[in-house]
Amino acid sequence: MTPLTAALMADYNRWMNERLYEAAARVPEAELARDRGAFFGSILQTLNHVVVADCIWLHRFARQPDAAELRLALAGIPLPTSLRQEMAGSLAALRDRRRELDELIQRWAGALTAEQLEAPLTYQNMAGRSFRRNFGHLVLHFFNHQTHHRGQASTLLFQAGVDIGVTDLLAVIPEA
Length: 176
Prior knowledge:
The protein is mainly alpha-helical.
């Protein structure tokens, strides 16, 4: 992971989330909440999980010694205690939190340095087990996790009759 790649992934993340929430807004609330047999059940719960996981990882990343700005930005954003914790009571409220996170992620990713990405990060998982891993690889996992679950959400939306269109990272890679 390089600083340039982290910034690109943050841009892609924001672009895709806007498209996904725009598409979800065209689905009736009852359909958004309907259990569709996916890992997190519904479209809304799948979108919620991505917000939960982003909050968890950002709080972990904020433990880096040089992450004072991220710690400050996260002051009003709760650390979830469950991977299924409800982060908002409606799609509109979840979309507001999503936008807030995406702005924060873009600022944070845009300020990452090669030195930070090469350093280790010690963190605990939800069960309290400690790990020490390369920070750049964890940032890669952070963005990959978002992409994975957005893929699930886009499939659920398609099954609900809404095609979100192009989802490829290629769409946001600038021409050389």
